[in-house]
Amino acid sequence: MDYFLTEEQQMIRDLARQIAQEKIVPVRAELDEKEEFPWEIMKVLAESDMCGLYIPEVYGGMGGGCFELCLATEEISRACGGVAVCYAASGLGTYPILLFGNEAQKQKYLPDIASGKKLAAFGLTESEAGSDAGGIQTTAVADGDHYVLNGTKQWITNGGEADTYTVVAMTDKVKGSRGASTFIVEKGWEGFSFGKKEKKMGIRCSSTTELIFRNCRVPKENLLAREGMGFIVAMKTLDCTRPGIGAQAVGIAQGALDEALSYARRRVQFGKPISSFQAIQHMLADMATQIEAARALVYATARHVDSGARNVSKVSAMCKLFAADMCMKVTTDAVQILGGYGYMREYPVEKMMRDAKITQIYEGTNQIQRNVIALQLIKESASK
Ligand code: COS
Predict the structure, then answer these.
(1) What's the gap in Å between 344 CA and the centre of ligand 1?
(2) Is 313 in the pocket of ligand 1 (CB under 6 A)?
(3) Structural domains in the chain?
(4) What is the SS3 assignment for 19?
């Protein structure tokens, strides 16, 4: 389908596709097996100007937005969901600065992220605060010209590998979610360390760790927006980045369909390629249709986000929800088409099915997305 990409957007997509084919496909199984962070590939992405697609030119980026980030994320995911999340999670860590940073913060932190010299990460989740993001316990207490952070963040993508962290902590616990604030914290600061690297079902080359704060002193100039704005910073960030999860899901699913199609044309049973059987044809047709529907929704949502529209929560949740559920179904069906081979690590669809699962969980479970959509629908209906 023609999505009317500009010449520049076509170049981004084609370059990301080329990097995915040439650099990622040959090593993805090994990266998954060894659970090794793909620094070599991150370097290639950086050298190809892929790290600053969504960052304004004045801070060293390419001046695009969520849409360009989605295009690149989709192509990388088509080859490997693990590499894609290392890449896209840096965007998640950067959006709080893009949306809420002051000029000095943007000038200090964005150029190194745009050039790919540094990766970013987002620290919201805690052991007792997953879906209930307002329930975080990490504290930030003002002390002179610093805040002192104490607490532990859990399951942080790019943990340990990133240099720049946007971290949500409570400056006033009594106020609940209205007492949260967001800070930029740098790797290497005293009192900031990392827990063990988690062993995961999928996206195994990515790094997932705890962020541990023990009397970590953060300069007051690293507070984003104002005290008490932390929850809004987090929610507005997720509104802009959930289409990126949708793009990951579309890419992983497209990769699985590519494999299933190619296998179905080669695999002969009962004297014919299995692609000649209607049972397989209908599965392939449904997979392709679902992918295209999800892609159209992701692209439309990303463009809507970039238009500067004020309330994007509902559509952002819709595209993440729809694409992630689609991805789980399509990758499961791809394994089914490959049959016994699909279940073996020798073929990539097994990894794709494992990688797909997380898209239904991170950046808000699909149950939370349904809550966001339903609450917004009810609100809109009441205001008519
Ligand atoms: N944009 C702007 N404001 C928002 C907002 C958004 N997208 N979402 C919520 N708010 C505001 C609300 O309007 C409310 O403001 P007031 O206090 O002025 O009324 C405030 O934030 C609290 O909102 P709400 O009452 O809806 O918060 P809840 O505690 O009920 O939580 C959910 C809302 C469940 C949607 C939120 O906690 C969430 O998104 N959870 C999932 C978190 C997540 O994605 N985790 C993954 C970690 S990052 S990989």
Answers:
(1) 41
(2) yes
(3) 7-119 (1.10.540.10), 121-230 (2.40.110.10), 237-382 (1.20.140.10)
(4) helix
Residue 202 φ then ψ, to 5°:
-135, -165
Pairing status of strand 268-269 against strand 272-273: antiparallel
- pLDDT attached to residue 136: 96
CB 331 within 8 A of CB 256: yes
Checking DSSP bridges between strand 146-157 and strand 139-143, what pairing results, if any?
A: antiparallel
pLDDT at 241: 98
Residues that are catalytic = 363
Q: What is the pLDDT of residue 384?
A: 85
- Closest atom of ligand 1 relative to the 157 alpha carbon: 49
Pocket test for ligand 1, best of 85, 124, 132, 177 (most atoms within 8 A of CB): 177
CB count within 10 Å of CB 381 equals 8
Instruction: Name the pTM for this structure.
Output: 0.97
CB-neighbour burial class of residue 124 (10 A; exposed 0-12, middle 13-18, buried 19+): buried
CA 116 to chain centroid: 17
Helical ranges in 307-365 per DSSP H: 313-343, 349-357
- Atom 22 of ligand 1: nearest residue by CA position: 177
How large a percentage of the chain has pLDDT more than 90? 99
Nearest CA to ligand 1 atom 6: 235
Whether the pLDDT of residue 310 is over 90: the answer is: no
Residue 231 in contact with ligand 1 by CB distance below 6 A: yes
CA-nearest residue for atom 19, ligand 1, is 178
Residue 364, ligand 1, Cβ within 6 A: yes
Please give the distance, rounded to the nearest whole angstrom, from the Cα atom of residue 231 to the centre of ligand 1.
7
Classify strands 208-219 and 146-157 as parallel, antiparallel or unpaired: antiparallel
- Tens of pLDDT, residues 94-122: 999 999 999 999 999 999 999 999 999 99
